[in-house]
Write a structure and sequence with these properties.
Elements: E1 5-9, E2 12-16, H1 24-27, E3 31-36, H2 39-51, E4 59-63, E5 66-70, H3 74-83, H4 85-88, E6 92-97, E7 105-106
Length: 107
């Protein structure tokens, strides 16, 4: 497991956790892409994930109303889609497994 990145800025120590690889090639198959209901719902996705126990999963803005949620493993992503619909339906119209068909920007 890689060590966290540590930055020292003007006598401040900042530790950036290595949650998971965000290289798009490493996200394929273990990520879920969702379409938010609206902009308000999109702004709540991070807090919904945190409240649902998915606080260590990065979320990335894809474009429009689409957001990508990255998981450590494919099975966790599949479980999220199939068994956590009460969570993702609060903010998203739909979710599906991501197979690398969009460019992402970290949010």
């Amino acid at each position: 497991m890689p060590l966290p990145v540590v930055l020292v800025l003007l006598d401040q120590l900042i530790v950036i956790e290595d949650r998971t690889s965000l290289n798009p090639n490493h996200c394929i198959g273990r990520s879920v892409i969702g379409e938010a209901k609206d902009l308000s719902a999109m702004s709540n996705i991070r807090s919904l994930l945190t409240n649902g126990g998915y606080d260590k999963n990065p979320s990335l803005y894809v474009g429009g109303l689409k957001v990508l949620i990255v998981f450590k493993e494919r099975t966790i992503a599949m479980n999220f889609m199939e068994n956590e619909s009460n969570l993702w339906k609060k903010a998203c119209v739909s979710v599906s497994q991501w197979e690398g068909d969009s460019t992402c920007v970290v949010i």
